[in-house]
Request: fold
Amino acid sequence: MSTNPSPNHPYGSRPSAGHADVFSAGDDPPPPQPKTKNWLWVLLGVVVLLIGGGVTAVADFGGNDSGTASSSRDGDSDDENLTFLGMFDGDLVAAAGEPVTSDGMTITTSSLFSTSDYGAAYLCTTVTIRNDGSMRRTVNVSDWMLQDPNGAKFSPSFGGVANKLNSGPVAPGGTVSGDMCFPNPPRSSTGQYVVLYDVPFIFTAARVGWVDQR
Reply:
């Protein structure tokens, strides 16, 4: 007894078992769908987090209340005409003894005076700092330098006077004062000296220079 052969599939061979894609005769299979690039979204999220964290870190470090830096002597024509060697755009400049407001603090430096300690000569200035903001601020003596008439810069010295300005916190509304001394080499030049206050990494704090003619 013979069996009839299976009839041919009208549209070609029958799909194998388990094959999910069946297409009509003459139709081409649809093009493959592009893969979603999830890694692009992951990378974008990481960048956003890094930028947000950096801004927060700068804000916490600076503790700036106003976000501005300005001179309290803007209306004085004499101070407006003051310049010093190596001055940059955005620097604040004042004559020795004049107060300057920068980054929420009012700062004053006196005229330079000479002193000596164990045979070493120094040029010193009395610095007064008032915290005008609502947050605690930190005074750091390493933010100060003295520039001589030739443009050479000197860091604060450990010698000179007993009433030194020390590094440390200043409470809101508080004031600190003390002397800061710099080396005064023999045969120092006469001319324009500049006491420089420059806080690194604080973008809202302008560099300040107090000019003193000696």
About this structure: The chain has two domains: 35-64, 69-213. The mean pLDDT is 77. The CA atoms of residues 55 and 102 lie 20 Å apart. Residues 69-213 form a domain with the Immunoglobulin-like fold (CATH 2.60.40.1240).
